[in-house]
Design goal:
Layout: H1 2-17, E1 24-28, H2 34-40, E2 45-50, H3 53-62, E3 69-73, H4 76-82, H5 84-87, E4 92-96, H6 113-121, E5 130-133, H7 143-146, H8 161-170, E6 175-177, E7 188-190
Parallel strand pairs: 1-2, 1-4, 2-3, 4-5
Antiparallel strand pairs: 5-7, 6-7
Helix pairs in contact: 1-2, 4-6, 6-8
Length: about 190
């Protein structure tokens, strides 16, 4: 499973470079739960916030017996802002993956990434958070958008790589972009 591979590699990267304990993991967009299951093996506490009630119910049932996992039904930017006081005292790793998955009717906000970043970066952190952004190829201008294939997404509702980097630069954060297609771990790490 790709999420397991991604999170294993991300955890390895964090142990080598983040110089902070693996306390809290916050995932936006639970999907099928494989990423959360992998994180629950590495982090002391895991929080997942999902806006789609179907995914939320499925994950809540699947993780009911995991004492270190809590799942919330909410908009991810609103949840991050509401839980800022709880999170700010811990070492937190964010796995930002809340976006429209291409099935069913597209929501008004297909990708809340910039709002999530604003919510995270508005918090007065004791330790700077680590931010991992999944599916980085969605934000580029390369193959994903230019293959000529019909996509169920509206490009104008997704931030570009340049917009993401500019937003993080506004907050004076260092950015590491790792590129590639699914065989290579792609995420943005901001310290």
């Amino acid at each position: 499973e790709l999420h397991q591979l991604y999170l294993n590699r991300a955890a390895e990267f964090l142990r080598e470079h983040a110089n902070q304990p693996m306390e809290y993991f916050v995932e936006t967009g639970v999907g099928n739960g494989t990423g959360l299951a992998a994180a629950a093996q590495v982090f002391e506490r895991c929080f997942s916030v999902e806006i789609d009630e179907r995914y939320f119910k499925s994950a809540a049932k699947a993780f009911a017996r995991h004492a270190n996992v809590s799942i919330y039904l909410n908009s991810s930017p609103a949840w991050i802002a509401a839980f800022g006081d709880v999170l700010k005292e811990k070492s937190v790793t964010f796995w930002l993956d809340a976006h429209y998955g291409g099935k069913g009717e597209a929501p008004e906000v297909e990708c809340p990434l910039l709002a999530e970043l604003d919510a995270i970066l508005a918090i007065k952190w004791r330790n700077d958070p680590v931010i991992l952004i999944d599916d980085a190829y969605y934000f580029g201008v390369g193959r994903f958008w230019s293959t000529g294939k019909a996509r169920p997404y509206t490009r104008s509702k997704w931030p570009t790589e340049a917009e993401i980097k500019a937003r993080l630069a506004d907050y004076k954060m260092d950015v590491l972009w790792q590129k590639g297609r699914p065989k290579v771990l792609k995420f943005t790490v901001a310290f």
